[in-house]
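User: Show me a protein chain along with its predicted structure.
Assistant: Here is one chain, sequence first, then structure tokens.
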Amino acid sequence: MRRVLAQVLFTLGLPAVLFTVWWVVSDSGTEIYSPPLRTILSAFGDVWTWERITADVLPSILRLLAGFAVAAVAGVTAGIVIGSYRRVRAVTEPVLEFLRAVPPPVLVPVIMLFAGIGDTMKIVVIASGCVWPILLNTVEGVRAVDPVLSDTARAYGLRGGIRLRHLLLRSSSPQIFTGLRQALSLGIILMVISEMFAASNGLGFAVVQFQRSFAIPEMWSGIILLGLLGFLLSVLFQLVERRALAWYHGLRASRRQP
């Protein structure tokens, strides 16, 4: 219990200090574009009611999760195939490097032509950006599988789904989760960007509407809410990662012990 409490204090310590400094520095400010933090927090409570959360926040979260899930399935599947076969990797690598270099926000107008302006477009935008860190980390994870384990699995006749589950996925899972963590942060950014184009709800839409109507405290409250959402999703992801990779973290801890 004491260890958990120390971890919570360590995690929340720096944000608390930064918010305190922000409060003190901005409290006497009169700049319209950077209002005092107390004004922003007051607007936060007035704006983000349950009705506003269901109208803007929940749709954004659902789009983010849908795009992230599509990217995870596509990235891991393609990464395992590309990482397992040298010829496939040699053929696809130039194309992957070209597509990876294209910034996902640039593709928004193109995606709108094919997917329209509804939720499908926003999910595709999120997935198109999130897939790359997952794909590339999965490829590297599969390529880094211990050759001795591969030879042992081959000698025992482990093939198909058994080899995929117990060798490839298990050995590359630390790299896969690294890609998933990177993709989650990128997905939040793309969620906001996609909601700035032809949208009628969502966090990105709300922030832009506040900015266009010069509701500056309300705009800042949306930015703070985005930060809190990113922090909460990161904490939840870490919990899932620790549970899924308990064997890996236990192995690393045992190796550090004298």
